[in-house]
Every structure is written in structure tokens, then in C-alpha cells.
Queue: 2 jobs
Job 1
Amino acid sequence: MKVTVVGAGAVGASCAEYIAMKNFCSEVVLVDIKEGFAEGKAMDLMQTASLNGFDTKITGTTGDYSKTAGSHVAVITSGIPRKPGMTREELIGINAGIVKEVTQNLVKNSPEVIIIVVSNPMDTMAYLVHKTSGLPKHKIIGMGGALDSARFKYRLAEALESPISDVDGMVIAAHSDTGMLPLLSKATRNGVPVTEFLDEEQQKYVIEETKVGGATLTKLLGTSAWYAPGAAVSVMVQAIACDQKKMIPCSLMLEGEYGQNDICLGVPAIIGANGVEKIVNVTLTADEQLKFAEAANAVREVNGDLKF
Ligand SMILES: NC(=O)c1ccc[n+]([C@@H]2O[C@H](COP(=O)([O-])OP(=O)(O)OC[C@H]3O[C@@H](n4cnc5c(N)ncnc54)[C@H](O)[C@@H]3O)[C@@H](O)[C@H]2O)c1
Ligand SMILES: O=C(O)C[C@H](O)C(=O)O
């Protein structure tokens, strides 16, 4: 299994590192536009191989996409991250052009590739890849829900004063500060609804902190997060590489599912060797349905700024 990661910055390098450490891929190719940067990151990571015990071969290239030929999966992390006080949506002006160009280069060299979109604003960038790549829809997957769900579980465990391994939960809808929908109604501690343990104030705190998870880290770090994003991507790549048929919330092109059309939004899906094997329809409460529709309206407005 050959994986390309475009963008050897914070998220791209973290993603390559987690993929290598889990030792399920034969090859990871890092691509960046900055001269020598991807080569340097690849060499540094390869010098951890004997220390960390992996056999994945990591190489880097400055923009030579012939080196990515025959990739099974490609991850797009190229583009700028937000700074404190910014929204993800403000990145569209620069990142749309980058994502479009990168997509064309990837598909030209790997026509069968499955693309995982990470660059922000992610739901809109995933939509852009659908509109410009010519790939079938099951081969384009936006990464947001896997990360947001991990942050939801972190906040749930904090409120429950429990180990994270006791907790399960999922975030769907948009990967944005306002459009995320943590499904509290379905979150559990060892199968017991968390609503049995948390009062209303605690529930509200968990939901709000989850939604602004990325903004909180951006304020602390001065740029956006990379460890959990990289780990979330590695889980998705492994689900494809190992045909795990794992249920992961991902930003996918909807054609009637959840009452939406012609939009990429976070929904639970089965991820396996073919990319998206199936979108899973879960029953939402009336309030969740309303919030999902509101998130869709907001993403649709951002999509309106795209030029194809
Ligand atoms: N979807 C998510 O959950 C999620 C999580 C974290 C970050 N992000 C997004 O991922 C993106 C990357 O974040 P980061 O922290 O790694 O940023 P970064 O600045 O550390 O890295 C981005 C890299 O992309 C490279 N790049 C720019 N244009 C390129 C091009 N045309 N071809 C190849 N490489 C190019 C840059 O040189 C840089 O090394 C941002 O848009 C950020 O908002 C999304
Ligand atoms: O918050 C950001 O801008 C980066 C990313 O989308 C995240 O959620 O960490």
C-alpha cells in the first residue's frame, strides 16, 4: 500500500509519522512546495524507524508528482492553517486554489486514488475535490468527524471523570466552530447514556467545548493543532489499507441522505478498501435534524464562494 501525503507541514508530517508507527503501509510519499522541506521531513522520520520499529519507507519530494504515481490513498493537507481569532472559512481564498491544483496532480499520476481531504475549510474543500477531480464519490473523504469525535470523547471523559476508553460518542455535520453536531443523545459510558450521569450544565459544557476544540487549540498554540488531526487521518488510512469496515464520521457528498443534496457534510460511514463502503443513516432527534440542516445551510453559503 502506497500513501501520498501532500503538505509536509505540521499535520502532514504528524500524519506520516502515525501511519509509519502503525506499520501497515509499505510506502509513504511526502510532497511539499517548499524546496527540500518534504525531503527533510522524510529523512528525519526515516531516522526514527530503527528507534520506533517500523518498516514503512518514507520519501519526500518538492513537487515531483511522478514520485506519487500508483498511490492507493492520498491525503491533502497542503494550504494555510488559521491563526488565533480566525475561522476556518477565512482560509478559502488561498486554500481553494492549492487544493484544486494538488488534486489535479494527484489524479493525473494515480487515477485510481482515494483522496482524504484535510485542508480547511474542509467540508468545502472536499466539495471542491468532488467537482474538480472526476473521481467517483466513494473515493473522496473529508476528515473532520474523526477528529471532532475524539475531542468529544476527551471532553466527555473529563466531565464524567472517567477514562477515555469508557466513553463512546460521535460528532457529525460541519467541521466548523458553529456547525459541529456532537450527538450527545447517543454518547455512552460503557453502554449507559451519558445523559444519565451529566446534568444539563455539564452537557452544555461538553458540547460547546467540543465545537470550539480547534479554536481553543489555535489560541493556545498560535496555529492550529496537528497531533490529533494526524492521528485521525492515520485511523482513516488504516481503515482503507486494512479493509477494516470501520464506522467513522466523514465529510461525504450527500445525495438525499440526511435530507441533503449536492453538499459534503459529516455523516457516519463504513470505511474500507473501496473508500466509502456505505453511508450509515442514524435516527436524529428533531433538534439534531434542525441543527444538521442549519449546518448544511452555512456550508452551502461558503461553497458559493468557490470558483471551479
Ligand atoms: N480537517 C481537519 O480536521 C484539520 C485539522 C488540522 C488542520 N487542518 C488544515 O490542514 C491544513 C494544514 O495545516 P498545517 O498545520 O499542517 O499547516 P502547515 O503550514 O504546517 O503545513 C502546510 C504545508 O502545505 C504546504 N503547501 C502549501 N501549498 C502547497 C502546494 N501547492 N503543494 C504542496 N504543498 C503545499 C506548505 O509549504 C506547508 O508545508 C490547514 O488548512 C489546516 O487548517 C485541518
Ligand atoms: O481548528 C483548525 O483550524 C484546524 C482543524 O480544523 C482543527 O479542528 O484542529
Job 2
Amino acid sequence: MPDAAFQPASASEATCIRVDLSGRPYDIVIGPDLLDEIGRRIAALRPGARVAIVTDRTVARHHLPRVEAALAAAGIDFTAIVVEPGEKSKSYAGLAQVAEGLIAARIERRDLVLALGGGVVGDLAGFAAAVVRRGVDIVQAPTTLLSQVDSSVGGKTGINSPQGKNLIGAFHQPVLVVADTAALDTLPARELRAGYAEVAKYGLLGDAALFDWLEANGRDVISGGPARGAAVAASCAAKAAIVARDEKETGDRALLNLGHTFGHALEAGAGFSDRLLHGEAVAIGMSLAFAFSARMGLCAGQDAVRATRHLASLGLPTRISDVPGDLPDTDGLMRLISQDKKVSRGALTFILVRAIGAAFIARDVDPDAVRRFLDEQRSV
Ligand SMILES: NC(=O)c1ccc[n+]([C@@H]2O[C@H](COP(=O)([O-])OP(=O)(O)OC[C@H]3O[C@@H](n4cnc5c(N)ncnc54)[C@H](O)[C@@H]3O)[C@@H](O)[C@H]2O)c1
Ligand SMILES: O=C(O)C(=O)C[C@@H](O)[C@H](O)[C@H](O)COP(=O)(O)O
Ligand SMILES: [Zn+2]
């Protein structure tokens, strides 16, 4: 029997989704112009707390003044730490800047860090908050499509190592997520497309009806039509449900890694540069995961074609050769893949698929099969 059709939520009002972690539940509030009232929400959540806003220079230019005004209007004492935009800030140097900034500002354990920005700021500020004074609570205010649908929720925080993506980090759940969907109006088109890859991921990994809906409405999600708010809410609901049942990825949270084993290796191979954004790497990685699944006889070739066609139709890269510039050779990519956090006793784990909306965790995947597949895919 086909899945029931996906029913989008209304886009005009704020939606609240609860992440039901036992003992530490938190809300994701989604809607337009929520940054203008973020001070009120924070004052209600933690009366008397000081706030350290962590943001990047681009987000500061677009959105910091109104966040500062909202905090001031709520009588909150705040400071701001501004990092350089881009993946390079998810580094030891970026961590030192934020951690030392928090300490210099005398942010105490009962104060709050406020991550205002995309996934880079969220992951970096989240990790600094996890370790400074052994833990300060954090509010996530995501300003990219990617961070609103994925990175602000679930508590994965961290920085990159030259040897691989997100290899230094901690689980540190936020106490509140405020996703102002109107903040996406200043986001460049390339970033919107990259964020869309993580939206499509939820359909591809576990919700065929959502994927059907995205095939009809994906363009509207990217261009900022009414489908956008619905897609953010659907994505957060999907992620909240998985995180609530498997906070620390001991089981099926790993499904959220669909496309990431290949994708992270490509990002590291491209030097964490703007040659390849995270969402773009995930789009290529998901296409590869579908093609590899088809190659192994696990899913129908038509499903792999359909998944790739949808991503490509929205302007996302789907092939290794879509990455501009040089990449490591296949052995180099295999070395990066072997550092993936899902590796267990040296054996590779991939998220593979049986169909659109039916991903599964494949353990002990044959590295020779992966190497042969990658070798062949490089010339496609
Ligand atoms: N923790 C998780 O669960 C998780 C999930 C997915 C991705 N991630 C991580 O997130 C990162 C990618 O996040 P991202 O795609 O948001 O990138 P990003 O944080 O680098 O933001 C993308 C760019 O958009 C700019 N920007 C942000 N908001 C803007 C706005 N409203 N208007 C104009 N410009 C704006 C930023 O300055 C930056 O240049 C990667 O490091 C990835 O590993 C983490
Ligand atoms: O939240 C998760 O779990 C995810 O896997 C979400 C991913 O989109 C995200 O990129 C995450 O940071 C990857 O996790 P990692 O453990 O492979 O670093
Ligand atoms: Zn991701």
C-alpha cells in the first residue's frame, strides 16, 4: 500500500516542535521574524542570565543588530563574539577564539551562549559551550536553511580535523531552538540549494511521501514560497523523532548520515573550502549511496536515477566530477572514509537504501567494492 500523502503544515504562524529527550526536552520554534522577539523567549527561559552571542561576520551584518535590540529590549546583558564566515572557522583556531572569548566575557555556567548563524557557527559555538567551564547551556538561532532543518537540532557539535570532518566534538543539546524563517531571505541561492540537500535527505532516508511532495514543491522550498516553512517543520519533526529515540547514535540516528560517508570524504578532500559546501557534498554522497546500493543489488536502479534526478533538477551537484579542482586519488578518499565515525573495529559502515524512503545501516561493507565503485564514479 502506498504511504499516505505528505500534509504540509501552515507556513504563516509559528510552529513548535518538541524534542522529547527524557529529562532534557526542548522546543524548536519555527516561524517568520522570530529573531525580533528572541529576547523575550530567552528572558522567560533563563531569567537573569547573561548572553554571549556567537555569530559570523556575514550574519552579523544582516541580523546581529536586531538580535541585540531584542535582547536589550528584554533587559538582557549581552556580548558578541564574531568569527570569520565559512567552514575554516570549524577549526582549533576557531574554537580557541570562541572559548577564550566566552571566558574573557566571564560567561558563567548559568548564563547562555546564543549561536546566531549557520551550521558552522552552531557546531563551533555548541562545542565551545560544551567545554567552557565544563558546560554552558546554548540556544540555537539558525539562519541558514541547512541549520534550520538539521544542524541546530540534536546536539551534535564539533570542529574538523585535517584528517577528517567533525572528528573533535561532543553531544551538547540546546535548551531552545529559534528558527526565524524570514532570516533565510538574505541567504544566497547557492546556500539555499545546499541546505535543500538535507531536506531531501529526510524523504530519501525514511519518508517516501515527503519525497513525492518535495518532487512537486522543492523549487518552492528553495525560492521561498509557502512550501519553505512546511519543509523546515517537516524536517525538524523528522529529526526530533530520531534524536529522541537515539540521542547518541548508538542505533538508528545513524540513518541521518545518509550520503555523509562519501560526502565528508569529499569535503575533507576539497580542503573544507568553498569549492564544496557541506550540503553539496551530501547531495553527491546521497547520489553515490543510491548508486552503490543499486550496484550491490539492494535497490532498484530506477530509484537511484529518481533520487539523483531530483537533486540535479534543483541545481545540486550529484557526481564526483562536479567538484571543481583537484581531489585526492581513490586511495586518498578511502583513507578519509576509513576515519568515518561509524567505522567499528576497522570495518566500514554505510547508510544504504532498499528504496526511496527506506534507508538502512549496512555494517561491514566490503572496502574493495567501495574502492572499485569510487574509481569508476570518478570518471562519470
Ligand atoms: N550538528 C549537526 O547535526 C549538523 C548537521 C548538518 C550540518 N552540520 C554542519 O553545518 C555546517 C554547514 O552549515 P551551513 O550550510 O549553515 O553553512 P555556514 O554556517 O557556513 O553558512 C553558510 C554561509 O551563509 C552565511 N549566512 C548564514 N546565514 C545567513 C543569512 N541569513 N543571510 C546571509 N548569509 C548567511 C554564512 O556567513 C556562511 O557564509 C557544516 O560544517 C556541517 O558539517 C552539522
Ligand atoms: O544529526 C545527525 O546525527 C546527523 O548525522 C546530521 C548530519 O546532517 C550532520 O552533517 C552531522 O554533523 C554529521 O554527523 P557526523 O557524526 O557524521 O559528523
Ligand atoms: Zn549533514
